[in-house]
Specification:
- The complex is a heterodimer.
- Chain A is built from nine helices and no strands.
- In chain A, α1 packs antiparallel against α9.
- Chain A folds into two domains: 109 residues; 164 residues.
- In chain B, α5 packs antiparallel against α6, α6 runs antiparallel to α7 and α8 packs antiparallel against α9.
- By secondary structure, chain B is mainly alpha-helical.
- The radius of gyration of chain B is 37 Å and the shape is elongated.
- In chain B, 83% of the residues lie in helices and 0% in strands.
- The longest helix of chain B has 48 residues.
- Chain B has two domains: 43 residues; 248 residues, no CATH class.
- Chain B starts with a helix and ends in a 5-residue tail after the last helix.
- The chains are: A mainly alpha, B mainly alpha.
- At the A-B interface, α1, α5, α8 and α9 of A face α1, α2, α3, α4 and α5 of B.
């Protein structure tokens, strides 16, 4: 196209307009294509986002729900298997071996629930969007739940072994009442039993499960209290012997004073001393009674402190998760619905 | 190449004319299409409130309402965890750690709920005259529920820290018939009173009243035991300690009364709050539904 040569072009004026038309044409075409492409890309991106949100609401949440649903039965199966093996009877190591299958199955259930959670979380947990916030809250509740169940399983042998005779903790040794002939002996036996027992309990403080942790705190305090009470009662019993001596001494002094018709002041002194001893005896008696009563009450409530871990605490905690997690799921679903209508 | 082109131009000037016309037609059509698309985009695309906007706001309303149900289990969880650590743990660090972890959950919950209410306020539907009023009431009520639960967190923490903390041994661990009871009582009561005074900080009126009630009882007992300590002769001490001991018999009644008053007050205020929120929620739901019915009647997606 050599339009540069005006000499041979028949219509020079119109010919000059041609490039203008062409350029306009090209520019317009490009514009139209660009706008079209933009609309298409936009639409496509919107479509993709909608699809990923739908997947989140449907497949991802369902997968998580299914995986989560397997965690608790697997935990129960493990606890039952371990306990059964231990009651067989078998040593802790043997019971750990015998319940390995259930432990593995639990671990697997827990791992797949965690990866379903991770799958759901990935790319969706920016806290700037409503969906992100809802995902974040859902993830948090689930992580708490998985930590809780893993802790429940992992620390169970420790917890279960506290009162076993063949384990280091040997907290059964705390119940020494019938083995001791004096209260001092009771105190000594208790102190011996308390040391490994409290150590084992304090190991439970590291558990990922707060029911065990809180039990460990309470239990440790209760044992410490028993030890204090045992000391007070032992001391009280020992003091008693001293009081008998003091009494004999006073009686002798009184007899002696009477025999030699002692002066008023000396008799008065003996009476005052007797009063002081009486006051000491009363105090000793009251402290002894107080401590003895508390000691017995402490021993009595020990079994229920242990039983409550599962019958009360764990079931209350599971009820908490059962209330929170479904609500979080529903909120996420509804939030996604809101997002899906915003197009 | 130049020659050939020249040749063709000369020969087919008629055909080139028609091609030019074709190009012009295409250009005009494209320009019209682009202009038309632009005009549609600018003017004819549905504007104003859409049916979807109303549906969306209604969904958001449901989400906010459902979220409120989470406060109870979360606060129960907070209370259980914090009570245990305050009662059983010596170390402040552990207490602080549990407190921070559990109270952060509730703070984040409130932040999320406030965010949800703000998102609702941004909806064009919420600006509409027939909806604005119902929405304003809804927002006010739910903001109040959020604030109430934030306050509950503070109240629970303060009560736990004082009554469940330094005050706990007062009527649990001390030996009433022990020789040094008066001394022990005064000492424990002083740290209890100090904790009670601190616990009033940031607590709401009902809780302050509860704490003051307990404070009054503990202070009364403490002063009686102080009189025992101050008595100079044995007989006087015995008399004082007897009256102080008798006064202790009433303490459970007094404490129970203070507690029941508090529980009733909390129950009444929370019932009212929940009722008001439910009413505002039902009203907004009704208004949104009738707005949706308008779309149905006019058979349109937009207005």
């Amino acid at each position: 196209m050599t339009y540069e040569n005006p000499g041979v072009t028949p219509e020079p004026a119109r010919s000059r307009r041609r490039p203008v038309i062409l350029v306009t044409c090209i520019v317009l075409a490009v514009l139209v294509i660009a706008v079209g492409a933009l609309v298409a890309v936009n639409n496509f991106a919107g479509q993709q986002k909608a699809e990923s949100l739908s997947a989140l609401k449907g497949d991802r949440l369902n997968a998580l729900g299914d995986a989560r649903g397997k965690v608790q039965p697997a935990a129960n199966a493990y606890l039952a298997a371990y306990k059964k093996a231990r009651n067989a009877p078998a040593s802790r190591d043997q019971a750990v071996k015998d319940s390995q299958k259930e432990k593995d199955e639990f671990q697997q259930a827990s791992n797949s629930a965690r990866s379903a959670l991770q799958e759901l979380k990935s790319g969706n947990d920016s806290v700037d969007t409503p969906v992100g916030v809802a995902v974040h809250q859902l993830v948090e509740s689930h992580e708490d739940y998985f930590d809780y169940m893993e802790g429940l399983v992992e620390s169970y042998p420790q917890f279960e072994g506290l009162f076993r005779d063949d384990e280091a903790a040997r907290c059964n040794g705390l119940f020494v009442g019938s083995k001791a002939s004096t209260l001092r002996e009771r105190q000594t036996l208790l102190a011996q039993a308390a040391e490994p027992c409290r150590k084992a309990a304090s190991d439970l403080l590291q558990s990922k499960n707060n029911a065990y942790v809180e039990f460990a705190r309470t239990f440790d305090n209760k044992v410490a209290e028993l030890q204090e009470r045992a000391e007070v009662t032992a001391k009280g019993e020992e003091n008693y012997a001293g009081f008998v001596r003091l009494k004999d001494d006073l009686v002798k002094r009184a007899d002696d004073a009477e025999a030699r018709n002692a002066p008023e002041a000396e008799v008065q002194k003996i009476a005052d001393d007797a009063k002081a001893v009486n006051a000491q005896i009363r105090t000793n008696r009251s402290e002894f009674d107080f401590a003895a009563k508390r000691y017995l009450a402490g021993v009595k409530e020990m079994p229920s402190t242990v039983e409550n871990v599962f019958s009360k605490e764990v079931s209350a905690d599971i009820k908490h998760f059962d209330a929170v997690i479904p609500a979080r799921e529903q909120i996420l679903k509804d939030t996604i619905d809101v997002e899906l209508t915003t197009k | 190449m130049g020659d050939q082109t020249l040749d063709e131009t000369n020969k087919d000037s008629g055909r080139s004319n028609s091609r030019r016309t074709g190009i012009i037609v295409v250009v005009v059509v494209l320009a019209l299409a682009a202009g038309g698309f632009g005009a549609w985009f600018a003017f004819l695309r549905p504007t104003g409130v859409q049916r979807a906007d109303v549906e969306r706001l209604d969904k958001q309303r449901g989400i906010v309402d459902r979220s409120m149900n989470l406060y109870d289990p979360l606060l129960e969880e907070f209370t259980a965890r914090y009570t245990n650590v305050v009662a059983e743990e010596e170390g402040d660090q552990e207490k602080e750690q549990v407190f921070t972890r559990e109270s952060d959950v509730i703070k984040r919950e409130s932040a999320a709920n406030t965010g949800r209410l703000d998102a609702m306020a941004a909806s064009p539907v919420a600006q509409e005259p027939e909806i604005a009023e119902a929405f304003r009431r809804f927002k006010d009520q739910y903001v109040a529920v959020i604030a109430y639960n934030d306050q509950r967190l503070i109240n629970t923490a303060n009560i736990t820290r004082s009554v469940g903390g330094p005050c706990a041994p007062l009527h649990r661990d001390l030996n009433v018939s022990g020789g040094d009871y008066a001394q022990a009582y005064v000492q424990t009561a002083d740290s209890c009173l100090l904790a009670l005074a601190g616990a009033k900080d940031k607590a709401d009126a009902d809780t302050v009243q509860l704490l003051q009630g307990i404070e009054g009882i503990v202070k009364g007992q403490r002063d009686k035991q102080q009189e025992v300590l101050d008595a100079t002769d044995d007989l006087g001490r015995l008399a004082k300690s007897t009256t102080a001991g008798v006064a202790l018999l009433d303490i459970n009644d007094a404490l129970n009364k203070v507690r029941t008053t508090y529980e009733d007050a909390v129950k009444a205020s929370s019932t009212k709050l929940v009722d008001d929120a439910n009413a505002a929620n039902a009203e907004l739901e009704r208004v949104l539904k009738s707005r949706l019915d308008q779309f149905k009647a006019s058979g349109q997606e937009g207005k």
